[in-house]
Write a structure and sequence with these properties.
The complex is a heterodimer of chains A (about 1050) and B (about 475).
Chain A: H1 2-13, E1 21-28, E2 39-42, E3 48-50, E4 56-61, E5 66-70, E6 77-80, E7 89-90, H2 95-98, E8 101-103, E9 109-111, E10 119-123, E11 146-149, E12 159-162, E13 168-171, E14 174-175, E15 189-195, H3 197-200, E16 212-217, E17 223-241, E18 291-292, E19 308-309, H4 317-321, E20 325-337, E21 341-353, E22 360-375, E23 378-391, H5 404-410, H6 445-451, E24 453-470, E25 475-500, E26 503-532, E27 535-556, E28 577-598, E29 602-613, E30 622-633, H7 634-637, E31 644-658, E32 674-676, E33 686-688, E34 691-693, E35 700-713, E36 718-730, E37 733-737, E38 746-750, E39 753-769, E40 773-790, E41 810-813, E42 825-827, E43 830-831, E44 838-842, E45 847-857, E46 860-870, E47 873-875, H8 877-885, H9 894-900, E48 911-915, E49 918-920, E50 926-929, E51 932-935, H10 942-949, E52 959-961, E53 964-975, H11 978-981, E54 988-1002, E55 1020-1031
Chain B: H1 2-14, H2 36-47, H3 53-58, E1 62-64, H4 70-73, H5 83-99, H6 104-124, H7 147-167, H8 182-199, H9 211-220, E2 235-237, H10 253-257, E3 259-261, H11 263-271, H12 276-280, H13 307-315, H14 325-328, E4 335-338, H15 340-352, H16 360-374, H17 381-385, H18 396-407, H19 415-423, H20 451-454, H21 456-466
Antiparallel strand pairs in B: 1-3, 2-4
Helix pairs in contact in B: 2-5, 2-6, 5-6, 6-7, 6-8, 7-8, 8-9, 8-15, 15-16, 15-18, 16-18, 18-19
Classes of the chains: A mainly beta (about 1050), B mainly alpha (about 475).
């Protein structure tokens, strides 16, 4: 479909260019260095172009027309066309404009030097080549303080935290509370501005309390009609990390295995991978190998299973089952603009084929956007996007029989060949019973891929309209409105005999529909005045109104009559299981700000906002909060040493309150009411919730202060930005735990206090810059900590054992008892559980970093990004289950062979108690300990030992160091020279080799720690491909 | 032009700003008030749902082979206060009952509160009751009450409930146990009352409780205090083939893969040639060729054995799994809060203890018969005639407990574990070399860990009052002293 559209656009694009005078030339700066990317338009026409890498341009114009040359950081130059066909232009640096302009809250463009808080910008152009299916993933490592944890699974959103909290996502000035990044296509992104911390986003109100990721889409630029085609394809040919399992022992338990009926019990060994050795020679069998009955054994005349060789047929199961995934993205956009209007439309399609057979993801967007300036004092801009995300099947994630790796690798012995499982129905029971070596605990991976289908179909519409009308040159009236709308249909098709956790399916179909609508409208007055060269003022006051409504309704069958027929009408049960929910909430606000600037060196900004929310009880649902920030440009006030080209200090303080309870969207959490109880044989019932409600709930509040400095050296070639912040979160709306004996688990109240602290460094440098060669480096580094400042109710510690002053990410885990020397205590040869959880380490990394490099030589550009984290712990389910189930390579040893032959030979290093006793206080501290010890000398069965301990005491209970470094992104681009393209309709043409996730180094065995959690993740894939970018 | 633009601006803005905050402050998803019968249904599905695999492991009915299980190997630690949530639901039922100006739900509430708090105190010893929020006290750190105080209130409440129900003429709606039959409710409450009294068999000398006198009062006034007459009267939740209403172990994968019958239990049934073995168990894989009613076709794993020995025996095909109906049949068998057969064994024991007069053997035989009937076995006389079965006074306590143990297989929650804890019968083996509590059967569970954070002072006081060695699974609670 996309190709047709492309064709039409190509035809359209070739319609321009009628006979005029052809003007050529070069644009240079004052030092005669050619300037690329200078925009050249013919005044009052749609005709325009930009200079190429060497500063050359070609444009057609008629005598007397005016050419306008403009480029960021330079004064605009106008040249009237005469008879000369070669026009060389020198642009003069504009000292005032040299300073970078960034987009801040509410889409207001501000000079970076005036900002009293940290903002970091990522240009859309850096996102358009090595693409991720989810735009946010592409920001990994590019912004200090923004920590993105990428999932290895298909269609799983990354975990985003900015300074340790989840930031707001804003698209074109409109907050997107549904935070669906999948709906934004990276080709449509002009820039992404990350507003770090509460001050930066205070104008968004409570929802912007944790900072914001501001996505600005392309709106159409002044200039000639251009058509851009951007296309890429990425393949996933190999894995960066995949669990490394033993291939010596097969299915079974205690070294025994004989298949009988697939139920897993008795000689089938309960689903363990602690079976006999594979490939064992046995001269007494026909094959010469050890033989036993298996799920694919032939039967004799009497119907008995015939033993077959027990060999390592499944060594390549991973390679055999997973296919090469791919991501294809295509985008066509049309852009046009002049002084009065500009317009852009874009069509995108992303198609991802999963590594699991029969899984994929489609994502299609149509965007239109533009601006109108009907008169000098009136400006309108708008954009509208329709986006569709669709798949008939994408994999379920998380540990359990719904996970592919669980069935394929973790819980399948090397004696099973996945290729043989492609016929996944048991003969004669098609539709009713899957065929697998164990049908009690596991799913045949092919059965799962082709029969257990999870569909997803989401239609998104979002857009905005903004007006600005100048009543006087200083005073204008402004209005912005934006909507986010979606409807989502999800289906779950569960075949008969599908294994869930502890449950075998009767066949089921679930249909779930969600609808979402939100609208936000702001109406305000803006006043802007420069009183003198040394003093100017800018201020706004506005009224804002937000409203959301969302509904979800879901219906499920209770078993299916006809297998494989997924329709609610096929319900086998007496009734449907159905739920629905409706949520509405609103916030009405008044806000304003004043920005003052003195001597172009000293800047102050004050904001204030009052919210009235529907998500708190009426008494306390209206509240006010302010912020103040300032910036001092030292380099403008004092004479700096020659090396320093710019120096600035900044500081800010803000208070932001929020009336939302908990992480979820539930706007009614402050209302106590009955939930639905168990319906018994048609009798409905009710049950009361587990939480009490304190009277007089107030909004929760964060006070944040931040200081920073920005220094640039050597003619701006090296820059360092440092930020330090402290945020105090108090009056938190928490579910404070109370004694379960009250009948309630907790009480919702304002309590607890936390402090967040962080440090961020951004270093950028251009070590080399010559006419033909340049090298740019950007280095981001950040650290974040959160501390418990107060526990509600004057308690010694929280339920998670955190005391006042402690880091809140301290991990306490179930461990074994140890003596004072730290030796593990054993009883009967097995370690003794500690009745209390013990401290084991911290979760958060010490540092998060990213280093990107960009090297350009003539038409060639190479950029690559390394990023990673240092410190912190990750709990690895994969590793724990590998030790437990018998798949870990560490389990290949003599003790295991002994256990297989019935000998208990494993004496774990440690001690046993030979006398005395220990007692604890209620918090688990030892009050008296008279125990005496002798070395543990009880030999136990190695297999049972591992099945009981998972080797936890030797692996820090499976909390591993999370440190890693990743080669995240590599792009090698060749820009075709202008002269090659001269005789074609093509203006720009570039071809890139792209790679993502190419290399990983970490100390965690078997998993990619990037996602920060491991609930048996999919193998981490390497993505390699091509990108093609053509501009007509 | 100028005016026109402003109109557009304003129109756009005001079309969307008409919703009042106050209009959005009711939850359309949840009811703030309900009729009490809706709460009753939910409470019943909690109180009568008593199928527990953990209890079956601790009570030596079953064994587990997917790892060392703390219930089987007796090294458990904390238990939970989850039953307080049920007490809260009962309290809400009383509130709604008062709003609706009915009384009958408040009467039933006394029974349910008594049941749930008894379950709690049996687990831990002292627990909070008099000051808990659910009974109307505004106290987030309730003190722990002595077992004597708790049982006194329980006995009085049960007695009150029985009496009040006899005169109440309101309808009971939402009742999925007895469908509103008040006589059956009275029978249940009185029968349960006798169980509680029997649990206090070590405390017959506590004057305030008057255990024996209360027991006699019930037996002496059969019209005022009717008891179960047959299995028809059982306090039973009957499962239905509807999602969430099915037998809780239906389609349970672990049950058919990792659980096996316990050897001493199987041996006992084999010794007695008890036909209930065939409804409890499946033949061992090694004996698949033998007839279903051949006792030699069944075997189990020894509860306290070294774990690897059990695993090896199971892999060798020499252990019986539970009968397939437990995981194949969505209805299987009802779950009992208390049944007719248990009542008969309670009465037999009361005679044996000389609390009441009567024929212990006939109660005992009736109990066995009721249990057999529960499992669909009608021919019982031959079994009753066996000398290994017959009740003789010298070993009455052991025989009654042994038959109670068989009758409560994978049913009635943790009751059998408590019975064994009280009487020592039947013996639960700890001699296999695998147990992890120095060969002891724990007497209780540790208090929930979060009580130390949320109710520290009350918890410490309760522990110091009861146990010299702190919060320990082997300490004796007042009830057992």
């Amino acid at each position: 479909m996309n190709f047709k559209i492309t064709l039409v656009l190509v035809l359209l694009a070739s319609c321009f260019g009628y006979g005029q005078q052809l003007i050529k030339g070069t644009v240079v700066d004052e030092n005669s260095i050619p300037l690329m990317g200078v925009s050249i338009v013919v005044a009052n026409s749609a005709n325009g172009t930009t200079t190429d890498f060497d500063g050359n341009y070609t444009i057609s114009a008629t005598n007397g027309e005016v050419l306008i040359f403009s480029s960021m950081g330079f004064k605009t130059e106008q040249v009237t066309v005469s008879d000369a066909t070669i026009v060389r232009v020198t642009l003069v640096e504009d000292a005032a404009a040299l300073e970078e302009v960034v987009i801040t809250a509410l889409g207001i463009k501000r000079e970076k030097k005036a900002l009293g808080y940290a903002v970091q910008e990522v240009k859309g152009t850096s996102l358009e080549k090595a693409k991720e299916p989810n735009l946010i993933n592409s920001l990994t490592g590019k912004v200090a303080g923004l920590n993105i944890k990428n999932s290895t699974d298909l269609f799983q959103s990354p975990e985003i935290s900015l300074r340790g909290a989840k930031p707001l996502v804003v698209i074109d000035g409109i907050p997107d509370r549904s935070a669906d990044i999948w709906k934004v296509n990276s080709d449509d992104v002009e820039s992404i501005s990350v507003l770090k911390g509460a001050t930066a986003s205070a104008l968004y109100g409570s929802v912007g309390r944790n900072g914001a990721i501001m996505i600005t889409t392309k709106k159409g630029e002044k200039g000639r009609l251009t058509v851009t085609i951007n296309s890429s394809v990425l393949f996933q040919p190999s894995f960066t990390k995949v669990p490394d399992v033993q291939t010596v022992y097969g299915n079974g338990n205690q070294g025994q295995y004989a298949y009988s009926n697939g139920l897993g019990s008795g000689s089938e060994g309960g689903g363990w991978i602690w079976g006999p050795k594979v490939d064992q020679l046995d001269p007494s069998t026909p094959s010469g190998f050890f033989e036993t009955t298996q799920y694919n054994s032939p039967t004799d005349a009497a119907g008995n299973l015939i033993p077959i060789p027990f060999t390592s047929r499944g060594k390549n199961n991973i390679k055999d089952f997973f296919q090469t995934g791919s991501i294809q993205t295509n985008n066509v956009s049309v852009n046009w603009g002049n002084d009065k209007a500009s317009y852009r439309m874009s069509v995108s399609n992303v198609y991802q084929k999963g590594i699991v057979p029969n899984t994929d993801l489609g994502n299609t967007s149509f965007t239109v956007g533009g601006t109108l300036n009907p008169s000098d004092n009136f400006k309108v801009s708008s954009s509208l996007t329709y986006n569709k995300q669709y798949t008939d099947n994408f994999p379920e994630v998380g540990y359990g029989p719904t996970n592919y790796l669980y069935n394929l690798l973790l819980w399948t012995g090397v004696d099973v060949d996945v290729k043989d499982l492609r016929n996944y129905w048991r003969e004669g029971q098609e539709g009713y019973q899957q065929r697998h070596f164990n049908v009690s605990y596991y799913n045949n991976p092919y059965f799962q891929a082709y029969e257990y289908e999870r569909g997803y179909d989401k239609d998104n519409v979002f857009g905005n309209v903004a007006f600005e009308f100048n009543i006087t040159p200083e005073l204008s009236i402004k209005s912005t409105s934006g909507i986010n709308v979606y409807s989502l249909n999800r289906t779950y098709k569960e075949p008969k005999s599908y294994i869930g956790y502890g449950n075998k399916s009767l066949g089921n179909f679930t249909n779930s529909d969600s609808r979402y609508f939100d609208i936000i409208s702001d109406l305000g007055l803006k006043y802007e005045k420069s009183f003198s060269d040394n003093f100017s003022l800018k201020s706004e006051v506005a009224y804002s109104n937000y409203f959301r409504k969302s509904t979800i309704a879901s219906t499920q069958t209770d078993g299916l009559n006809i297998p494989g027929f997924y329709n609610l009408a096929n319900n086998a049960g007496a009734s449907y299981i159905a739920t629905n929910r409706e949520e509405k909430d609103a916030i009405k606000s008044v806000y304003g700000f004043i920005d003052l600037s003195f001597y172009n060196a000293f800047y102050v900004s004050i904001t204030g906002r009052n919210d009235k929310v529907s998500t708190l009880p009426k008494e306390n649902n209206s509240f006010f909060y302010p912020s103040v920030s300032g910036s001092l440009v030292l380099s403008s006030l004092f004479t700096m040493p020659n090396a320093i080209s710019f120096a600035k200090l900044r500081g800010s303080w803000s208070r932001v309150s929020e009336g939302k309870i908990g992480e979820e969207t539930d706007p009614y959490a402050y209302i106590q009411a009955y939930d639905k109880g168990t319906t018994w044989n048609g009798n409905t019932s009710a049950a009361f919730g587990t939480s009490l409600l304190a009277p007089g709930l107030e909004p929760e509040t964060s006070d944040t202060w931040e200081v920073g400095a920005n220094i640039r050296w050597f003619n701006n070639r090296v820059g360092l930005d440092v930020a330090y912040f402290e945020a105090t979160d108090y009056n938190n709306l928490i579910y404070s735990p109370i004694s379960d004996a009250t009948g309630y688990e907790s009480i919702l109240l304002n309590g607890d206090e936390f402090k967040r602290k962080g440090l961020e460094f951004v270093l950028d440098a251009k070590p080399i810059e010559t006419a033909n060669f340049s090298w740019n480096i950007l280095f981001n580094l950040s650290k974040f900590r959160r501390f418990q400042e107060e526990i509600y109710g004057d308690r010694e510690q929280t339920e998670g054992f955190i005391k006042v002053g402690d880091r809140t990410d301290k991990i306490y885990a179930d461990v074994y008892q140890t003596n004072t020397e730290g030796e593990v205590i054993f009883e009967n040869g097995f370690p003794v559980n500690d009745p209390y959880q013990r401290y084991i380490g911290e979760d958060d990394p010490d540092w998060t970093y990213g280093i990107s490099n960009s090297l350009s030589y003539k038409n060639l550009n190479l950029s690559f990004l390394f990023d990673g984290r240092i410190g912190g712990l990750i709990y690895s389910t994969t590793n724990q289950k590998m030790w437990w189930g018998g798949k870990h390579k560490g389990t290949v040893n003599q003790f295991r062979d002994d256990a297989n032959s019935g000998v208990s030979s494993y004496v774990a290093p440690g001690v046993k108690v030979v006398g005395g006793a220990v007692s604890y206080d209620v918090n688990g501290a030892i009050t008296s300990d008279t125990r005496t010890y002798a070395p543990n000398d009880v030999a136990v069965n190695y297999i049972n030992f591992m099945q009981t301990t998972s080797n936890g005491h030797n692996t820090n209970y499976h909390y591993y160091k999370e440190s890693f470094v990743k080669l995240r992104e590599v792009t090698l681009t060749y820009n075709f020279p202008k002269k090659v393209l001269d005789n074609t309709p093509i203006h720009e043409f570039s071809l890139s080799l792209i790679g993502r996730n190419l290399w990983l180094n970490s100390k965690v065995p078997n998993i990619d720690p990037d996602s920060g959690v491991d609930a048996l993740q999919a193998p981490s894939t390497r993505n390699i491909g091509l990108n093609l970018n053509v501009k007509f | 032009m100028k005016n026109y633009s402003i109109y557009i601006l304003c129109a756009l803005f005001f079309t969307v700003s008409c919703t009042k905050i106050e209009d959005l402050q009711d939850d359309p998803n949840r009811a703030t008030s309900v009729s009490p019968d809706l709460l009753l249904t939910n409470i019943e599905t909690k109180a009568f749902n008593n199928v527990s695999l953990n209890s079956a492991l601790a009570s030596r009915y079953l064994t587990f082979t997917d790892g060392i299980n703390e219930n089987q190997y007796y090294n458990w630690q904390q238990a939970s206060f989850a039953n307080y949530d049920n007490i809260k639901q009962v309290h809400k039922m009383i509130e709604e009952s008062e709003k609706a100006e009915t009384e009958v739900y408040s009467i039933l509430a006394k029974f349910f509160n008594s049941y749930f708090i008894t379950e709690l105190t049996m687990v831990f010893g002292e627990v909070p009751y008099s000051e808990i929020l659910a009974t109307g006290e505004e106290n987030y750190t309730p003190v722990y009450d002595t077992q004597e105080a708790i049982f006194l209130k329980v006995l009085n409440d049960l007695n009150d409930a029985s009496n009040a129900l006899a005169t109440n003429e309101e309808l009971i709606l939402g009742d999925v146990i007895y469908d509103g039959d008040k006589t059956k409710w009275r029978k249940l409450i009185n029968t349960y009352y006798l169980r509680v009294l029997l649990m206090l068999s070590n405390k017959t000398d506590v004057a305030s409780l008057n255990v024996i006198g209360r027991f006699q009062e019930i037996l002496e006034n059969p019209t005022k205090y009717p008891l179960f007459d047959s299995n028809e009267d059982n306090g039973a939740l009957v499962y239905v083939n509807i999602q969430d209403n099915r037998y809780p172990l239906f389609n349970n994968n672990e049950l058919q893969t990792a659980y096996y019958l316990e050897e001493s239990f199987v041996d006992r049934l084999k010794d007695l040639e008890d036909p209930r073995l065939f409804v409890f168990a499946e033949k061992t894989p090694a004996a698949i060729a033998l007839a279903d009613d051949d006792f030699n076709a069944y075997d189990g794993l020894y509860g306290s054995a070294i774990f690897s020995d059990n695993a090896a025996k199971a892999v060798a095909g020499n252990a019986s799994r539970i009968a397939p109906r437990f995981y194949n049949d969505p209805i299987n068998e009802p779950s009992l809060l208390i049944g007719y057969s248990e009542l008969q064994f309670i009465l037999a024991e009361a005679v044996a203890r000389t609390w009441i007069s009567g024929d212990a053997a006939s109660y005992y035989n009736e109990g066995i018969k009721a249990s057999m009937n529960f499992y669909g076995i009608s021919e019982v006389s031959a079994y009753l005639a066996k000398s290994e079965v017959q009740l003789t006074s010298a070993i009455a306590m052991a025989r009654i407990a042994t038959q109670k143990h068989i009758a409560l297989f994978l049913n009635t929650g943790w009751q059998m574990f408590y019975e064994q804890r009280r009487t020592g019968y039947p013996e639960f083996n700890v001699d296999g070399g695998g147990t992890l509590n120095e060969g002891r059967i724990p007497k209780r569970w540790l208090y929930p860990a979060n009580e130390a954070t949320n109710n520290a002072a009350s918890l410490k006081a309760a522990i110091n009052r009861q146990f010299t060695s702190g919060d320990d699974i082997n300490s004796l609670m007042w009830l057992l002293k």
